[in-house]
Queue: 2 jobs
Job 1
Amino acid sequence: MFKKHLVILLSLFILILFSACNDNDKNLSNSIISPRESKVKVSVSIDAMKEFVQAVGKDKVEISTIISTGANTHDFEPKAQDILKISNSDIFVYNGLGMETWAEKAISAANNPSLIVVDSSKDAEIIERKETGESNDHKHEEDYSHSHGNYDPHLWLSLKGAQSQVKNIKDALIQANPSNKDYYEENYNKFIYQLEKLYNEYNIKFQSLEKNTLVSGHAAFAYLCRDFNLEQNSIRDVFAEGEPSAKQLAELVEYCRDNNVKTIFSEDMVSPEVSETLANEVGAKVEIIYTIEYPQGGMTYLERMESNLSKIYESLVE
């Protein structure tokens, strides 16, 4: 019996000691990063935010992504380990605009008073969301706005929008680690140059075309379309919710025929079934484009954006 009590007491002592060490480590990690600190700990919501942090922070950041591959980003609910990631971070970066409906509660639950929180959409020129189909009755409108907000969240799919988001991230890294300000500024300027270069290349291409219509699986590309003066029509709404009605599909068939649409785009996160049905009806093909919410095939943000733009451009010269 004595041995049993001794084991319990030792276990409790080790647990208390471990907790104290964790608290000390957390207090150290929550302070401004010293010049000797090798990594700034950053938690991000989705892969696009990880790409932006990596572009600016490079080898001076350690990044944890909250939403894993395959999870539904729009209906995601963080688990205890996700809250712990945020709690142990110096910076938390999320997209904003109703994309991460869980972010505010997760930040509160993380209970990290030194956490630098980055709503990357801050100060961006945003687009109000538009519903598709017939599901726009008053009650649905209220429920929809309550859960997701009134804005299209897919800012990162715009090269111009990405520039705004990357600036907010750069500013946060400098706040957390001011001794490496010049390093972050240099990386930021290089990445902005790459974004501008890709934008200028495709702006010239798109401006030379007569057609400007894009039909996608869900309405994720309004910001990209704004960049290049394109017109988006989609099967599902901004948050890929619900199934299109027979009336909506009939209207899309008519739209595709009227505009000589030869490609129906389907996104990596959405089932291609309805896109394939629409394509078969109008004699078009289906192409997959990236929403960059998850990692894909080892491709960078710039590579995936170039792939998207190339496929969209080719669809308009057919």
Job 2
Amino acid sequence: MKKPIRFYLAVFGGKIMIKLMRLMKRNATNLPGEASLIFFPKLLHYIDMPEKVIAITGTNGKTTVSNMISDILEGNGYEFISNRFGGNVDTGIASILLNDCSFAGKCRAKMAVFEVDERSAGRILPFVKPDYLVCTNLQRDSMKRNAHTEYIFNFLNSNISDKTTLILNADDIISSSLKPENKRAYFGIKRQPDEESNDKSIICDAVLCPKCHAHLVFDFKRYNHIGLAHCEKCGYKNPQANYCVEKIDYENKKLVINHNGAYEEYPLVESRITDIYNTSSAIALTREFGVSYENVVKILSKAKIVKTRYDRYKLGNHEVIISLAKGQNPVACSGVCHAVSKESGNKAVIMILEDFYDAQRTSENLAWIYETDFEYLNDESIKQIIVGGKRCSDYLLRLLMAGIDRSKISICDSETDTVSFLKPENVEKIMIMYDLFNTKSLEAIKTQLEEKLGGKK
């Protein structure tokens, strides 16, 4: 393919910017790609991609899955470039490629693993054309960006290459319908003994049959629309999972997966249901890619969820559990509320869910808190809920609407003042729900908890 002179200038300028930024000890994760794309918007079209490309997208879990896949591949000797420490939009991926490619735009790496923001798929997938694409799930997210799942589905569906092998969630009747003619493998979780259908969720993103648009009937609902459904009119139903979690052994921390009729045992990395979906998707991708069962197990036995997503540790006589709740995302936030309610023992909950950048730059749309299942926090084992942030009064109203006793709730305008309201003598566990862009406040809260409860054990 003949490349225009502007392409070479964009590559040269981007590579120079990367070197200069690193000399200044700054991360060159987005800005070089952004500048090069502004100068030459067709940059990704003309870069010669690595021979093999794996992409991971979806509403929730894509960062965790990308990290897990990268760990498994790296631990088995694969060499690749990735945006693990950079942006998942076109500017971040452009920066990674600019750093790796020659001045002629040919990538030196033979392989790449890219996390791809689902809303940015139209600016990435037509050019990157991944050989494998994992879609963790498709659910409503921020009102400002992608609250409508059908829109995001169509956006993805129209930009996935016909050559791409798909790894899809069999329990998600939306994302499992992507590119029906493409080669695919499904992952999923069998309904476990005594697992109740969650029919009280405020949100269900799949109400109508994707094929004939008649009303769906849910045989089992795990959360939102994740579960098993069928259409009585045309017979449409969830596909059969090629990698089906048959048994979750919490005591021995094992997963038993039915892989096309063969039973395989894998480590249980984390016990939350969302983490089990994430683990099974990473297993499905790496096994389909050609990594042996034994070599996947070897790496997963040492794997841990990134601590910016989930962490738990002891402080004095208390256990602290920190979970990313992804503010403005009602499905992800509901999942954390549900996990909080299922934790054993008496608990206090600290909530800092405001998006820092929203507070600084825009007017936040609060509709999402009325779609979040805060009702899960109306539980006898939760003795105290402390909400910090400028919108704390809005959260107070929502918690009261959830039926939570007012005497349990404390609010304050500053996220970092929340610890002063904590009554540790009444609980064994302190649960912190935080938005990804509130990490500075989170670190301050962790330091205050150490001072109040004692050092880490």
